[in-house]
Amino acid sequence: MGHPPRRTAEELDAADPLAWARDRFVVTDPDLVYLDGNSLGRLPAATPDFVDAVVRNQWGTGLVRTWHTWIDWAASLGDRLAEHVLGARPGEVVLSDSTSVNLYKLAAAVLAATPDRRTIVVDAGDFPTDRYIVQGLAAERGLTVRALASDIDTGLSLNSVAAAVDDDVALVVLSHASYRSGALNDMAAVNSLARKAGAVVLWDLSHTAGVLPVHLNASGADLAIGCTYKYLNSGPGAPAFLYARADLHPALRQPIWGWFGQRDQFRMGPDYDPAGGIGRFLVGTPPVLSLAAVDPALSVIEEAGVARIRDKSVRLGEFVLDLVPPGMRVASPVASDRRGGHVTLEHPDAWRICRALAGAGVICDYREPDRLRVGPAPLYTRFVDVWDAMDRLRDLLASRSYEQLDDAPGRVT
Amino acid sequence: MGHPPRRTAEELDAADPLAWARDRFVVTDPDLVYLDGNSLGRLPAATPDFVDAVVRNQWGTGLVRTWHTWIDWAASLGDRLAEHVLGARPGEVVLSDSTSVNLYKLAAAVLAATPDRRTIVVDAGDFPTDRYIVQGLAAERGLTVRALASDIDTGLSLNSVAAAVDDDVALVVLSHASYRSGALNDMAAVNSLARKAGAVVLWDLSHTAGVLPVHLNASGADLAIGCTYKYLNSGPGAPAFLYARADLHPALRQPIWGWFGQRDQFRMGPDYDPAGGIGRFLVGTPPVLSLAAVDPALSVIEEAGVARIRDKSVRLGEFVLDLVPPGMRVASPVASDRRGGHVTLEHPDAWRICRALAGAGVICDYREPDRLRVGPAPLYTRFVDVWDAMDRLRDLLASRSYEQLDDAPGRVT
């Protein structure tokens, strides 16, 4: 269709079954268009009071006694994530550490369990920490990293994964959605071909958890990790999650033998004896204040339902595509079923455009080398937000006002 | 001296140069005597508003833009810890992960740097996570763990450390103060004998940081880790710290190659290239809400000064010793210069006594097999608190009312 008028956006918002959800978030600057929920989700309206009660009441008044409550959160929040977001069973998901540390633990556990296989397959275009963690594991063990070339716009081809996964491959580490383009990998297909080759697949769900239904069990997924601060809205650096299918627990021993992974932790026995279930993947004391913020954030998602969230996400993404202004090239799959929650646009001056756009009240983000990520979050992004953002982007490109900014690289992008 | 009257405690409080500091903490139940600051420190009065501002303003309004601020906290809080608490230089301390993960990272880095040495020395009576982490590292690498027998009351003898550290020892992992007895290890002496043998020492400061002056540089310490939720009052599961002496940075590469340890992190380059300084020991995105709580907690300690804190800690500990009721045996070093912040008492029924004491409004904690830990925290524990606690303990022992409780082990102690 041609360039839709703002009225179209207003009509889409009026008919939006998730319109109510925006009120579940704090929006202090109504003129700001926030399209970076794929990096840091907005603050849920219930979170400040929830966290404050944890601080004042549970810590301040309950003191150390509240550990009887806190001790269960990593697992109980994991169970909620499993049921409502990840398509997994109770006891298969737990909150713990950072995404990077969880990747390390699970990947190392697989490598220890399959010492005869000497290769790890990764996407050469995957998010840096995924690649770096694997590089470190491989370097220490003398393993080969098979880094598959992927298209920066459309992602990894299933054929290249199929060709790479042979009987020397212990582990395949892939992101469900590419951090740059949002291109989706076919989780079920990869799981199936890896299983035939005897390899284990570890999925990074950071860019899909909370914005589309993930079907870990139904797709035959072995292992997964992901952050909770993007579409899961749990706050900056909120604890990450990890998933391990129940039948894999006995064979997997992760290398960081911390006391939270110990069976009968407070017996404080002489030798490490890992807990029987998902608890064996825990390590140290969880950061309770940050963990607390996962709870109210999940409540909004549970109420909305990830299927409805995905439905709106697809329509928001298509609306972005309808509105891409001249001069920006779409650098994401155009087919919605091949794309996660964000749409990426390419421009040689993307870094300056991103900052100029922020000056015009539109927060997107920049990714090397020349990408502008547009990340509508269905729970709080309206169609008019997308329309206004693309309108301001259009003006900015027409005026070339961004050329007045310097081009020095940013420390944080 | 004989059993001092409560008036003595009141006089000590009246003369206490740190008496002002109690008002810097939230005390909602004035009848409760909290002697478990060695496990979870009290809530500083400034913390709720500080954390709330981070949640509402920095996250809620600033959104992803606040990462320009948050990105520096791990290092800037580390520098404050270095200067005011740990006796280290700027750039030698950083906040990161949990104590367990930090121990793993630093220990693994040492083992990788000294592959010809095949032994790790630990205290067989050290805190579980320290022993377990080392067991895991040793198991994976086929190394020997030399677990030194230590006295449950008085700790490890320097002679046994000296005898154990030979030229096959890569690493010595010790706690500065024993978690059970509070017995102190002589940091400078251990560092010196280890250096002569070519071994690296990694100190766990969890039970000393914030309650006595730690002199990492002056004692010639190589590496250290510790938590911030005990005497550092930063809240349940607050991020841990790690210290690495500056000259050791180039040789140490930790095994978890996460993107926060990468030089020029947001360039997102193809290969892991660790940051030049202390940043190379970082891994993933820090839990910002939990990290935030370190700031106001440190401010109180900076104002009080750890030397004054230690002075009061010693006097509080001696006051506990003066008041130990009949039936409890002192299970800590009686010499104050050999003891950290807490005093441990032994009784065959310590578990039931601990819970009965909680029912009488005195929170201590229990440690296997039969220990009651009494942990006065100088910033908020008054001498009358100690007096009242010991008085209630005396009554409880005289009445044997604790015998009415069941003796089933607790999940959390």
From TrEMBL, chains A, B:
Which reaction does this enzyme catalyse, per its entry?
Answer: 3-hydroxy-L-kynurenine + H2O = 3-hydroxyanthranilate + L-alanine + H(+); L-kynurenine + H2O = anthranilate + L-alanine + H(+)
Tell me the residue numbers annotated for binding pyridoxal 5'-phosphate: T99, S100, F127, P128, T129, D130, D204, H207, Y229, W259, T285
UniProt keywords, alphabetically: Hydrolase, Pyridine nucleotide biosynthesis, Pyridoxal phosphate
**Which positions does the record annotate as the modified residue N6-(pyridoxal phosphate)lysine?**
K230
Query: One GO MF term, please?
Result: pyridoxal phosphate binding
Q: Which GO terms describe its biological process?
A: anthranilate metabolic process; L-kynurenine catabolic process; L-tryptophan catabolic process to kynurenine; NAD+ biosynthetic process; quinolinate biosynthetic process
Instruction: Give the quaternary structure.
Output: Homodimer.
Q: Name the HAMAP family for this protein.
A: Kynureninase
Q: What is this protein called?
A: Kynureninase
Encoding gene (name)? kynU
